[in-house]
Amino acid sequence: MQRLNREIVKFINTDAMRKRLTDMGANVVGNTPEQEAQRISDEVAQWGAAVAAAGVKLDYSRLPYRRMCRAAVALP
């Protein structure tokens, strides 16, 4: 996993790839797997609270991959 991460980070940090990604609106980072897991956890906590406070409900029947999503996160 560490080797794969190093190779991906090296690749996305090339000038050509960084330009291509930023031109598409991506925020090029290059985190370690542990840093990325923490970032995702922080985002879920932040946006989960905002979504819950707003009372947003997802219509699971409209998800194209609902079976996979349901299995991954125990959706109704």
- Describe the largest sheet: none
Computed CA radius of gyration, to the nearest angstrom = 17 Å
Helix percentage: 55-70%
What is the average per-residue confidence, as pLDDT, rounded to a whole number?
81
**Class by helix and strand content?**
mainly alpha
How is this structure best described in words?
The chain is mainly α and 76 residues long. Helix content is 66%, strand content 0%. It has 4 helices and no strands. The chain has helices spanning 2-12, 15-23, 33-54, 66-73. The mean pLDDT is 81.
How would you summarize the topology of this molecule?
Blueprint: H1 2-12, H2 15-23, H3 33-54, H4 66-73
How would you sum up this structure in a few lines?
This protein is 66% helix and 0% strand.
List key phrases describing it:
76 residues, single chain, mainly alpha, 66% helix, elongated
